[in-house]
Design a protein that fits this description.
170 residues; Structural Genomics Hypothetical 15.5 Kd Protein In mrcA-pckA Intergenic Region, Chain A; three-stranded antiparallel sheet; 8 helices; 49% helix; 5% strand
């Protein structure tokens, strides 16, 4: 089981980190999605890599087992908001990009909903405890927002940003 105080890494760093095109792409994604460091991007890439590995491993299974596990995987990805239909093909799962995962982060959702003026301000108001999902405070900008939670992303009920109606303080 392991010690709960010693959690495992959620990411794997790139095998060859000094490729110029990768460095440029990482810096561009960090700017667009307001990531603090490349580790947050590597977490999303590792999550995507594991999803794609699971989808590819379905190809070697017998037909009925493959169908059942593909349905489970596609329903999970639909709940996460990464695919548009609950019944997806393996190609649909393999076409998911890291940008689609970064779009589901709480930081991006807060910015897209207009609760913050910039992506960086969205990160700040989340960390300071001004954002809630279903009236429960969430302080992790990297939280993946599911389809069920998406309409409930709002400012925390006791937040001074909600009372004053301004977001300059954040």
């Amino acid at each position: 089981m392991g010690d709960p105080k010693k959690s495992r890494r959620k990411w794997e760093s790139p095998g060859h980190p000094w490729i110029k095109t990768r460095l440029q792409r990482e810096m561009e994604l960090m700017g667009v999605y307001g990531l603090r460091n490349k580790r947050e991007l590597w977490i999303a890439e590792t999550f995507l890599r594991r999803i794609k590995h699971r989808a590819r491993s379905l190809l070697v299974l017998p037909e009925d087992e493959q169908r059942k596990q593909l349905q489970q995987l596609s329903q999970k990805l639909y709940r996460l908001g990464l695919i548009n239909t609950a019944t997806a093909e393996i190609n649909d799962i393999l076409n998911i990009t890291v940008e689609s995962i970064l779009e589901r982060r709480l930081q991006t959702m807060v910015w897209k909903k207009g609760l913050a003026k910039t992506i960086h301000q969205a990160r700040q108001i989340i960390i300071h405890g001004h954002v809630a999902i279903r009236d429960r405070r969430v302080t992790s900008p990297g939280h993946i927002v599911t389809r069920d939670e998406e309409p409930y992303v709002s400012l925390y009920p006791t937040s001074p940003l909600l009372r004053s109606g301004r977001m300059e303080e954040a």
